[in-house]
Amino acid sequence: MSLLEQPGPKIDPQILTMLSGSLDQLSQLWEQTEPGSNSTLLEASQDALLPLERACETVQLNGVRMLLEGLGQNLGFMRQRSGSLSASEHSHFARCLEALQAHLADLGDKEKRDTLVDMISTPDLPVHADPQQSAFITGLLALAGIQSPEDMEHPQATSEDVELSIADDIDPQLLEMLYDELPTLVDEFQQHLQSVLDARELDALLSAQRAAHTIKGLANMAGIKGLAKLTHCMEDVLEILTEAKTLPGPQMAEDLTEATDCLAQMSESISASEPGPDNAMDVLQCMMDWFYRLKTEGLDCVSQPLSGKPRREPRRTAPAQPDAKATRQAPAQGGHEQSQLRVPVSLLDNLFRIAGESSTLNAQQDDRLKQMHRLARANRERQRILQKVMFDIEQQLQDYFTLSPSQDSDDSDFDPLEMDRYHSMHTTLSQLQEAVADVREVGREMAEQLRHLSEMHAAQSNLQKESLDNVLSTRQVPVHSLSSRMQRIMRQACQAAGKEARLVIEGEDVLVDSQVLGQLADPLMHIIRNAVDHGLEDPERRAASGKDETGTLTIRFRQAENQVQVSCSDDGGGINVQRVREIAERKGLVQPGRELSDTEAQRLILIPGFSTRDEISQLSGRGIGMDVVYQQVTRLQGTISIHSELGKGTSFELALPASSLLIHTLLVRSAGKRIYALSSHTIEQSLLSADGTLEHTETGMIFITEEGEYPAYALETLVGEKPADYTEQPLFPVLMIKLDQGEKAAVLVPEVLAHRQQVFKSMGEHLPDIPGVPGVTILADGDVAPIIDLQGRIRQRHSALSPVLELAEPEFNLHLPEVLVVDDSLSARKTLATLLRDSGYEVRTAIDGLDALDKIRQEAPAIVLTDLEMPRMSGMELAAILSNSKQFRNIPVVMITSRSTSKHRGEAEAAGVSAYLTKPWTESQVLDQVQKLLF
Q: What's the pLDDT at 625?
C-alpha cells in the first residue's frame, strides 16, 4: 500500500506548535543573516532541520518530512558548491521556511498548502521538485489533519519502554553529571509532588512538572529510555493539570505516588548498576492510561478511578541479578562481569595521601633495616676481633706458666702444672670464652631474625607497591574520554573560521592520570583552535598549493619512560618566522634589531599578549591562547617544543609526567650538604667531568664533549646556594638536561646519591608558584627535600627569552570574556559551561536569578545566558532587573528555554532580552549569538 493509500495522520496540536516554533527560530536566523553567507549558516540550518525531520517521521507527518528532507538536500548542495549564496537563493530559501511554518499553523488551509508546494517547485532552489513529485507531496500534505480526542490511540507500554541501560557512547563527563544530579533531581521532584498531594498546593504542580522535564532531558542525553519514558508520561499528566489548575483526585494521587516511588527506584538502580523495579511497566502503563483519559475524556476524569483496572499492590525491587540489558557492562579479567561502585573524589584523594604516606614509611623502614643489617655485620666483626683477643690471651697465659720461673720459694715443692694452681688461673678466662660463645649464638639468632624480617619486608614492599599501583589505577582514564570534546572544538573552530578540516586522534586507549588529563584538556583545546585559526589555510589556498582542501590536525598520545607524550601536528602553512619577529618588535616584546634564531622566534608565540591577528574574533586576536598552553604545561612540570616548516605545517610536542602522585627523581647532595630531589623527566644522561672539558667564557661556563658544546650551570647557582668552585674538584658528576626545541644544557653536581621514585607533595595553595620547584618530597630519613625541575630553573634564570617574558608580564593584563550561565538544572549548567570554556571563554554559573544577581554585583560578566523558568527568580525577572539598572543595563542577556511561543518571545523582548534561543539548542547557535553580542 502506497503512502497516498494509507489513512492520513492526526497530529497533536502541541507537536505542531513545537515544530512551528523551531522553524520560526530558523527563519529568524535566515532573516538576520545577510546574503552571501558562508557554510556556517548552511551547516547550522542542516543541524536544525535534522531533529525536525526525525520528529515528523515519528508522528508519520510524511509530507512535511519529505519537504524537510528536500530542503536539507538543497543545503548540502549549497555547501558543496564553491562560492557564497546569491541574494535570490538566500531570499527564496527563507520564504520556503516561512511557507512551511504557515502550513503547520493551519494544516487544512489549501491555499497555504499550494503556496508551499509552489515554493519548493521553482528553479530558484538548486534541487527542486518536478511536477510528479509536487503532486505526490501535495497529496501527502492533504492527508494530515489535527488530532481530535476520537483520533487518539491508546498507547501500550512494552518491555523496551522501561529499559535502564545507558548509551555506550555517552560522554564520561555527562555520565558523571548523571550520577551526581539524578538523585538530587528525583528527591526534588518527590518533594514538589508531595506538596501537591499532601498540602494541596497548586503552585507546586508547575515545580513538579519542571523537575520531571529536567529529569527527562538528562535521561534522554544519557540514552536511558525507561527513565525518559516514565518522566515524559508524568510530565504530560502534570502539564494538563497545571494548565487547568486542577489537583489530582484520590486514585490519580495514589498512582502518581507509586510512579514517583518507581522513579526513585529507577534512580537507585542506575546508580548501583542494577536492574530496575519489576513493576516499572505496570506503572508506565498506568501513567499512559491517565494521559489518554485526560486527552479523550477531559478533566472530568481526574476525580474518577481508572475503569477496569484492579488496584495494584506496590511491588518491591527484584533482587539484583546480572542483566546485560539493564546494566552497563564493564570488561574484566577472565571475561567475567565486573560490578561498579562510585566513590567521591575526596575519598580517592585521601587514599592517594595514605598511599603516599605508606610509600614514604616503607622507604624509611627499608633504610632502618639496612642500618640494622650494617650493625649486625659490625657486631659479627667485633665478635671475631674479641675471639682473636681471647685466643691471644690464652696463648700468652700458657706461655707465662710454661716459661716463667717460680716466684715463691714455698712453691719449690710443687709441680708448675699442679691442677689446683692451673685451675685458679684459668677459671675467669674459661668463663669469658663461654660468654663470647653465648654472644656469638645470640648474634646468629639475631641474623636469622633479620633475614626473616628482610623477607617479610620484601613481601610487604611488594604488597605496598601493588596497593599503590591499584590506588593509582583508580585515577587512570583512557584518552578517548576527551575525544568528543576535541572533535566538538574542531567543528566549532572550523565553523567560526570558515575552514574545512578533520581531526585525527591516535592512541585513544592510552591510560592517563585523570588529574593530569583534566589539566591537559584546556591546552589541547587551545592548540586545536590555534591550528584551525593560524595554521590551516583556507580551502582555496590549500588547493592552489596542491594540498587537500580539507586540512588535517593529528593528535597522538603515547606513554613512554613514565611520561605522557602528546604530539599535535597540522599540515597547514607553518609559522611565518619573519612576520612573528616583526609583530614582536612592533608590540615591544623584543628590542628592535635583536638577533633571534628561528627556534627562539617560533617560541615568541608563547608570550602573553602575542597575536598575529589585528582584529578580535571568536577564535583569535585577544593574545590569549598559546601562552595558556605554555603556562599550563609548565605548571604540570611538562615541556613543550615547537617544530614548524613554512608551507608544510607545525607540530607541538608536549611531554608531561604520567602521574600526579609519584615522581622519578635523582637524589643529589650540593656543596652546602643539602639534599635535592631532581626531577628525572628532563635528565637525559649522567656523565663524569672527565668525559668532557669545563671552560669559562664571557657569557658563562660551557661543557665541551665529543657531541658538542653545552652551556653549563652549577647546581648551587640554580637553587640559590653559594656557588661552588668546580675547577678545584678533580672529578664530579655532570647531568645533561633536555631543554625546549631539542637543545641541551649541562648541570654540575658535587655528589649523586641514588635514583628513587618519590611521593610528590605540592606546597599548597597558600605559597606562590616557584618556577622549577613544583613541590617537595620526604626522604627515607624523614627529612624534607625540595623537588627541582632543572629545565624550569634554567629556563627561569638563563633562557634566551627570559628578558622578553619579563618585559611582557607587566605590560599586558589580559583576560578572557566572562560568561555567566544561569540555570537551575545542574546538567544544563555544566553542558553549557563546558561548551563555552572549550570555546575560549571564562565561565561562572548560578543556580537561579537571585544567585545570578549576587554574582553580577560582585563582578559584572560580559554576557548572561539564562534559563526562563527557575525557582526564586525567573530568567525573565532577572533580565528585567538588569535592563532597568543603570550599572548593568549594557550587559546582553541571552534567554535559552523550551518555551517557543510568540507570547514568551514578546515578554522576553519587553524584559530586555537580547537574544532568544529555544531548546534543544545547537552549539553553533549559542556560540554565534555570544560572538555577535560580544564582538
A: 59
Q: Which cell is 548 given?
A: 587537500
Contact by Cβ (8 Å): 27, 101: yes
Return the SS3 of 777: strand
- Count, in order, helices (H) and strands (E) of the chain: 27, 26
Q: CA 143 to CA 7: how far, in whole Å?
A: 7
Structural domain harbouring 900: 818-934
Per-residue pLDDT tens digits for 606-638: 776 666 554 444 445 444 457 778 877 877 777
199 with 289, same domain? yes
Q: Is residue 325 part of a domain?
A: no
Q: Are residues 534 and 628 in the same domain?
A: yes
Phi, psi at 655, each rounded to 5° = -130, 125
> What single-letter amino acid sits at 728?
E
What residues pair up with 676 in beta bridges, in sequence order? 668
pLDDT tens across 790-823, in order? 877 887 665 544 444 443 443 444 456 899 999 8
Instruction: Name the E strands within 551-597.
Output: 551-560, 563-570
Q: Final residue of a domain: which of 265, 283, 310?
A: 310
Residue 836 in 3-state DSSP? helix
Helix (H, G, I), strand (E, B) or coil at 909: helix
Tell me, yes or no, whether 14 and 88 share the same domain.
Answer: yes
Q: 482 lies in a domain?
A: no
Which of 130, 151, 172 finishes a domain? 151
Total domains, the chain? 6
Q: Name the nearest CA neighbour of 839 among 526, 616, 552, 612.
A: 526
Phi, psi of 816 (to 5 degrees): -80, 150
pTM of the predicted structure, to 2 decimals: 0.56
Instruction: Compute φ and ψ for 733, nearest 5 degrees.
Output: -75, 150
For residue 708, pLDDT over 50 is answered with yes
Residue 183 and residue 266: Cα distance in Å, rounded? Answer: 10
